[in-house]
């Protein structure tokens, strides 16, 4: 069985799709590549921000839950999402830009051997920018145009996801013994001891960073992460991974058709929700590349409910 290829996407929660769209496109300069709905609850938006082509490994997605309360941070959580930039110089560009935009941002620090910059969006979503200077083994995506963000400093994909757990052994068992990651590093951080796990070529697009903490369990809300999705090539590989997850004794969703990709979901014993997702067919199934994200896209099984669904959704700027 082939290795997991890296991170596929990260899905989080927002209470306001319009302000979310403004932050991730206007401030961070990402492209809205798919404006669709939660297929399990079509009354809510599901927004996908990514690189120019909506490439696997670049998607930061959000479910809109207007009544979502605040997040009470803690363990048993996906505590931070990594985003990649091409160089150390880009980190300093973002430090200056985010301060001017009055975004909550820290100081550049070395993390797992790379220069990084921690920030939070307007809802407290925790993000860390990672320089590719020493972490580009897994190819990044292609920058999207933005009038105020030069291409050489733009965000080009997802970096390492950070998990915070009480029992390192439980999550390590899944990463190493089920998903075939390897342990490639570790260090002490302000948040606690951190262990680095890598798959495939490793580097920024193929790492999970796990922090061990005795904090109480996180109570999720707006600004929290719902799940971490990992990349597999196609549905045949996904079926092989399902067998491996079954054999390891983890309950799972079975194969789920998401139209733009095919998925499987399961939780580790710390409650972390993982998804395995195929690289294709991709977001140009129902929109040409140059028009991605410009209209509400619905998978075929929801198309007959379009009028009903559109009446429940508040228009956002991209409409």
Automatic annotation (TrEMBL):
Q: Which UniProt keywords apply?
A: Dioxygenase, Oxidoreductase
Q: Which domain of life is it from?
A: Bacteria
Xref: InterPro entries? Extradiol_RC_dioxygenase, Glyas_Bleomycin-R_OHBP_Dase, Glyas_Fos-R_dOase_dom, VOC_core
Boundaries of every VOC domain copy: 6-132, 157-279
* Listed GO MF terms: dioxygenase activity
Gene3D superfamilies, alphabetized: 2,3-Dihydroxybiphenyl 1,2-Dioxygenase, domain 1
What is this protein's record name? Ring-cleaving dioxygenase
Pfam families (UniProt xref): Glyoxalase
Record keywords: Lipoprotein included?
Answer: no
Q: Which organism is this entry from? A: Alkalicoccus luteus
């Amino acid at each position: 069985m082939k290795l997991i290829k890296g991170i596929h996407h990260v899905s989080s929660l927002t209470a306001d799709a319009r302000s979310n769209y403004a932050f991730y496109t206007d401030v961070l300069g990402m492209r809205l590549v798919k404006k669709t709905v939660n297929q399990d609850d079509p009354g809510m938006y599901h927004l996908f921000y990514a690189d120019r082509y909506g490439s696997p490994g670049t998607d930061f997605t959000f479910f809109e839950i207007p009544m979502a309360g605040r997040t009470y941070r803690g363990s048993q959580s996906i505590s931070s999402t990594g985003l990649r930039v091409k160089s150390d110089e880009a980190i300093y560009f973002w430090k200056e830009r985010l301060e001017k935009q009055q975004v909550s941002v820290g100081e550049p620090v070395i993390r797992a051997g790379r220069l990084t910059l921690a920030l939070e969006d307007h809802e407290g979503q925790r993000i860390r920018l990672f320089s590719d200077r020493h972490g580009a083994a897994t190819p990044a995506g292609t920058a999207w145009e933005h009038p105020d963000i030069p291409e050489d400093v733009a965000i080009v994909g997802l970096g390492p996801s950070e998990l915070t757990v009480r029992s390192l052994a439980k999550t390590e068992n899944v990463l190493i013994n089920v998903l075939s990651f390897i342990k490639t590093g570790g260090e002490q951080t302000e948040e606690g001891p951190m262990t680095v796990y890598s798959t495939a070529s490793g580097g920024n697009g193929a790492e999970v960073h796990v922090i061990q903490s005795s904090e109480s369990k996180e109570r999720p809300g707006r600004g929290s992460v719902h799940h971490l999705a990992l990349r597999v090539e196609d549905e045949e590989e996904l079926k092989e991974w399902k067998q491996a997850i079954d054999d390891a004794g983890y309950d799972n969703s079975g194969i789920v058709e998401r139209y733009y990709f095919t998925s499987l979901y399961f939780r580790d014993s710390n409650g972390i929700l993982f998804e395995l997702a195929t690289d294709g067919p991709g977001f140009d199934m129902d929109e040409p590349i140059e028009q991605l994200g410009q209209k509400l896209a619905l998978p075929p099984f929801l198309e007959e409910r379009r009028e009903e669904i559109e009446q429940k959704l508040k228009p956002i700027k991209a409409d």
